[in-house]
Design brief:
Two copies of one chain form a homodimer. With about 325 residues, the first copy, chain A, is an alpha+beta fold. Chain A folds into two domains: about 35-150, 60s Ribosomal Protein L30, Chain: A, CATH 3.30.1330; about 155-305, PurM-like C-terminal domain (Phosphoribosyl-aminoimidazole Synthetase, Chain A, domain 2). Chain A is about 30% helix and about 20% strand. Chain A has nine helices and twelve strands. Chain A has helices at about 15-25, 70-90, 110-120, 175-180, 190-195, 200-210, 225-235, 250-255, 270-280; strands spanning about 45, 50-60, 95-100, 125-135, 140-150, 165, 215-220, 235-240, 265, 285-290, 300, 305. The first copy, chain A, has a seven-stranded mixed β-sheet, with helices on both faces. In chain A, strands 2-5-3-4 form a four-stranded mixed β-sheet. In chain A, strand 3, helix 3 (about 110-120) and strand 4 (about 125-135) form a beta-alpha-beta unit. The radius of gyration of chain A is 21 Å and the shape is globular. The two termini of chain A are about 25 Å apart. The model of chain A is unreliable at about 5-10 (pLDDT under 50). At the A-B interface, helix 1, strand 1, strand 2, helix 2 and strand 3 of A face helix 1, strand 1, strand 2, helix 2 and strand 3 of B. Strand 2 (about 50-60) of chain A pairs antiparallel with strand 1 (about 45) of chain B, so a sheet runs across the interface.
């Protein structure tokens, strides 16, 4: 869609030139033979195997990432990996990433795209398309595409009474990292890194799908909110024995800090899940409790676990 | 990705509640059996047939659509149909649309989504996912997904010397409509409608793919820019005999106004293209000239056609 301004006034800055510079950065990634990306009206991808999995996420500088504490490169990186986490949550294999960036004139668009490319390279994916626009905010809308061969995607709604509940790692690292950064910690601090460059659990998600788990989601808003969402979708309750709190994080950060992007899994065959993780060299998943039939039972160590965690102001 | 604010302060407005209201609007569209859309980490679509075609476009209120002259519903509608036009340009059959909306608190998000749903219903597609965020601007990032069975997508780069060049309709309607709206014309004015509710030429794109045309693109930035892009990608020149100027539009609006979203087609078998259009009940495409081998020959009625048209300020 174009701006409703006199086109003759728009020639000073050439979109095509900027796009060419961005294409050089983006094109430096791995490109599959027979696929066409940037440069046509749309990207052309080779046929998907099985179900197609798609999700979109928008990140706004100053809202989703503090511009005083982090860089534009971090914004590009985190926008991509947090979106990829939604593919991980379905057990999908990533096929491509699209970026739609809007920003005020003078914004270093190449930094944003460098960060995005670092994220796709690190995770073995590729940027297949994008768009640029002016605007007052710096916003990065990321769409991720993946595929689920075989039995297909793992939904939130499949948890059954008696299933074991597991997470792929200790919680609270991202929230602790943000707190530490605000207190003056370096960008290289391990917990700060967990906040600004979260890692999507793609390998874990695919392994869990292979182990035929019943339900899965990523912990983006804190387990005290996300586990309720999974239980609602599955029409079940839960009883948690314990929560694994990451070193350096508080119990509150682990419970409702959000942005850990660990996976939450429900399965009736945890041994198979553990074996699948072991075979693929993945860290052992951590059992936190079990699914119970009564929808109103939502407990941690026998006490009600209140529904709380991150909610966007809309 | 979450906002780096204290999560306990964010509970006054419930994202889940807003999402539920939006889901009701979006869910009112046609949903294919066996597909899961809003409500999980990602949307799950049944396997694509052939190549997967994807594109993303961002529209910003005040930049891409004048907030004084048009409504939020128009923004949602136009963001979707202008993005679908990129699928039309490849000859793709649409499979789904994702919306990532950011807006200041108090923005009528339901209006934006109503417009988007009207657009997907009118074009026989469906919204399969989305995201919402705060922000100072109202931005709508739209990702479109499609498929190309058989020989696959039609690229910009396939035009060959001797090909006939055609367009799917007269040009300049959108630019004329914007001018008329600024002069006080009603929203229902036919040309104003062409500006605020453009129609993606999906049926025409699929018919052209079926006719094995050599190259295709949509005219989003004006033919005086877009035809150069097609010629550059195909490493050819062009000689235009004439341009079809829409009733009520000026020659300048037809040449470089942009946003007409008519398709530009290069084929060595125009009779087959015409027959395919006729069979499907589509208006006859209009021949405008031919492709020539010399890359530097870029003429309209024997005179050089300067490269000009809409370029975003970045």
């Amino acid at each position: 869609m174009n701006a409703p301004t006199d086109p003759t006034k728009e020639r000073s800055q050439h979109e095509d030139d900027v796009l060419e510079r961005i294409a050089k950065i983006v094109g430096a990634g791995v490109v599959s033979v027979g696929e066409h990306y940037v440069g046509d009206d749309a990207a052309v991808l080779k046929p998907f195997v099985g179900e197609a999995i798609v999700s979109t996420d928008v990140a706004v500088l100053g809202i989703h990432l503090d511009a005083e504490l982090f860089s534009l490169r971090d914004l590009g990186y985190k926008a991509v990996t947090s979106a990829l986490s939604d593919l991980a949550a379905m057990g999908a294999r990533p096929r491509g990433v699209l970026l739609a960036v809007s920003a005020p004139p003078g914004t270093d668009l190449e930094e944003i795209h460098q960060g995005a490319v670092e994220a796709t390279r690190a995770t073995g994916t590729v940027i297949v398309g994008g768009d640029l626009s002016g605007g007052r905010d710096v916003t990065v809308a990321v769409t991720v595409l993946g595929e689920c061969p075989g039995r297909g995607a793992v939904l939130r709604s499949g948890a059954r009474a008696g299933d074991e509940l597991l997470v792929t790692g200790p919680l609270g690292r991202a929230a602790a990292g943000l707190r530490r950064r605000r207190e003056g910690a370096e960008l290289s601090d391990e917990l700060v890194e967990a906040h600004r460059r979260p890692w999507p659990r793609l390998a874990e998600g695919m392994a869990a799908r292979g182990a035929h788990v019943h339900a899965m989601m990523d912990l983006s808003d804190g387990i005290a909110l996300d586990l309720h969402r999974l239980a609602d979708a599955s029409q079940v309750g839960f009883a948690l024995d314990d929560l694994p709190v990451a070193a350096g994080a508080t119990e509150e950060e682990a419970t409702s800090g959000g942005e850990d992007y660990e996976l939450l899994i429900a399965t009736n065959d945890p041994a198979r899940l553990r074996m699948m993780f072991y075979d693929r060299g993945l860290r052992e998943p951590i059992t936190i409790g079990r699914v119970v039939p009564e929808m109103t039972t939502r407990t941690l160590r026998g006490k009600d676990l209140a529904r709380r965690g991150f909610q966007h102001r809309l």
